[in-house]
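Blinded run. Sample ID left blank on purpose so nobody reads anything into the name before looking at the predicted structure. Input follows.
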Amino acid sequence: MDGLSIRQGQSLLNTGNTTSETRASDFAPKSSAPADGSGSFKNVLRDAINETNSLQKSADVKVQELATGKTTNIPEVMMQVEKADIALRLMTQVRNKIIDAYQEVMKMQV
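Blinded prediction complete.
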């Protein structure tokens, strides 16, 4: 993923800044995973998928509002669509990395 993690991608989505505008300190890990297991890979992945889904739904609602004339704020609609697009591309890259890792594990001889 070229050094871009889910947490970093989420930070970019939340701030609306580009990576060049974001300082390296913003990408530093905040803390270690909680002891209760809520920071497990499964939970992080599930949360990222749910967030991507909600961004896609929100973008769809904004586009429908624009198409029906309920809103005329085109920049807001475009920002929401771009956020959803970036999140989807990030999740696609995560999926590709997971599939690559699975294939590598399956190639191992025991």
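Unblinding after everyone has recorded impressions. Residues 98 and 104 are 10 Å apart (CA to CA).
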